[in-house]
Structures are given as structure tokens and as C-alpha cells.
Amino acid sequence: MARSRIQIIACTIAAIISLAGLADATYLTVQYLTGETVVCSGSSDCFRVLGSPYARVAGIPIAAFGALAYFGAFSFATFAAFGYKLARKFFILTVCAMCAMTLWLLYVQAFLLHAFCRYCLFSAAIVFLLAGIAIATPPPTD
Asked: Which domains does the chain have, with CATH numbers?
């Protein structure tokens, strides 16, 4: 499988961007699990979103699932940069699932909670960047 320099650079950028999302999701997960208050710079919207029932699934914070997804995206992007055949497909599948969840969570914030969390919006931006990279990067030639 021949890889171009553009594909390697795109995968590397995707891996680095995934690390930013992993840091964001890990911070929120740790804050939830330790019972600490998230630093939202005085924004009550942030507290309303993170304290809502939509922020957890079966008692597990959504951010924990996000951390797993970002770690998966990072791993698949890294493996794709090194030429593993299925890694790009798994990266695209992971990013598609992340996009679907992000769209749902943006809907919840906008229309159900009427409040936005800056950490969630940062995560949404990262997911959409990853989707853009996945779409814009040409597939490797055989």
C-alpha cells in the first residue's frame, strides 16, 4: 500500500488533534470522578450542562466515553501514519461515531438544556476537525 507524504502528515495532525480532545475529555472525567468542580470561569451554563442527566450514561460520565473515543482516534491515526491497512478505516469509523454523538450532544445543549459548555464546544470543534481530515485525506493507493 503506497502512502503519500500528504497522508502521513494528515494522519500525524489527526493524532495530535486527538490528543487535545483526549486531554479535554480526561479532565472532565477526572473532575467528575473526584467530585471536584469544573473550572468554567463563572459560566452557569457549563455547570448546567455538566450537571445534567444527559452528562452521564448508567452513572458513567459521557466524557469517559469521549476519552476512550479520542484514544481510539489517536491510536488509529498513528497506526495509519505508519501504514497499517485497516487503521484508516477504523479511524474513519471512530470519527463517524464521534460525529454522531457530538451532533446529539449539541442538540441536547441547544434545544433541551438551553445552555452550552465550553469544554463540550471545544470537543465538538475537535471532532469536526478530525472529520474534515478524514474526508479531505485521499485514500492510499494500492
From this structure: 5-135 (1.20.1440.130)
